[in-house]
Amino acid sequence: MHFSTNIKLLRKRKGRTQGDVAGSLSINRSTYNNYENRVAKPGVETLVAFSEYFGVSIDTLIKVDLTKLLESQLSQLEKGYDVYIRGSNLRVLATTVDQDNEENIELVAEKAKAGYTNGFADPEFIRILPTFKLPFLSKEKKYRTFQINGDSMLPIPHGSYVTGEFVQNWEYIRNGEACIVLTLNEGIIFKIVENMIDENGMLRLHSLNPIYVPFSIHISEIKEVWKFTNFISSEMPEGRPQENEIVESIREIKKDVKGINERLRAVSE
């Protein structure tokens, strides 16, 4: 049970003393001290009081070792995104930090994508990935960059480096958000997401390029989701065709179809 270490960690992150918390919970300071030092075990009513005070579920207080979580995960927890309260599974992420104990952005280039599909949860594999920083991104969130290929997400060019924010709770993915999705069978996919988890446990994935047909994937086949933040490319995105160009293309297609129909009629006669 991780109750003792968890309440100590949460208290310190709030900048409170043992006396502060004890006073807020209407218990003796010595009793509180005994909880943090594992001398005493809390009853149900006390657990409820601690849960309400820190805004964290009882399950999290006793089952999850919060000292093992990333700063980004702790920050989300303190903002009310408790995975036990929200009904999702806790996803522990392998990551790297710099000499100041701040999280890096790991780069998963094209050559590393196959290895990442198998080694995404292996700290040793993640440790060998190149890392960098983007100073304009929040230090309270976890980011990773993936190189994409193909033309399914045009105008984002083939070979672009897409950075995503780690999504802990998939139920909060908004329809229309672009995400990098790590799947069991398809590997790393970059798509526009339609969230259908409440309906049938699926995410429906759409391409920006309309020639690609949308498809659905069950969450049991998904390992990670990263919400699109930005992309870096050495190529300029292709411009959208002007309206008159589209009209002209339609006219050409109609002309071709008309010619085909005329030839078919000539043959039949």
3D architecture notes:
With about 270 residues, this protein is of the alpha+beta class. The chain has three domains: about 5-70, Orthogonal Bundle (434 Repressor (Amino-terminal Domain)); about 105-230, Umud Fragment, subunit A; about 245-269. Helices cover about 35% and strands about 20% of the residues. The chain is built from eleven helices and nine strands. It has a nine-stranded mixed beta sheet with strand order 2-1-3-4-9-5-6-7-8. It is elongated.
List the helices and strands and how they pair.
Blueprint: H1 3-14, H2 18-25, H3 29-36, H4 44-54, H5 58-63, H6 71-78, H7 83-86, E1 105-108, H8 113-119, H9 123-127, E2 131-132, E3 143-147, E4 161-166, E5 177-183, E6 187-196, H10 197-200, E7 202-206, E8 215-218, E9 222-232, H11 243-268
Parallel strand pairs: 1-3
Antiparallel strand pairs: 1-2, 3-4, 4-9, 5-6, 5-9, 6-7, 7-8
Helix pairs in contact: 2-3
Mean pLDDT: 85
* Rg calc: 26 Å
Instruction: List the uncertain runs.
Output: none
- The CATH class designation of the largest domain is Mainly Beta
Number of domains: 3
- Using DSSP, what is the number of strands? 9
Order of helices and strands: HHHHHHHEHHEEEEEHEEEH
Classify the beta-strand content into a percent band: 15-25%
Q: What do we call the CATH homologous superfamily of the largest domain?
A: Umud Fragment, subunit A
Q: How is the CATH topology of the largest domain named?
A: Umud Fragment, subunit A
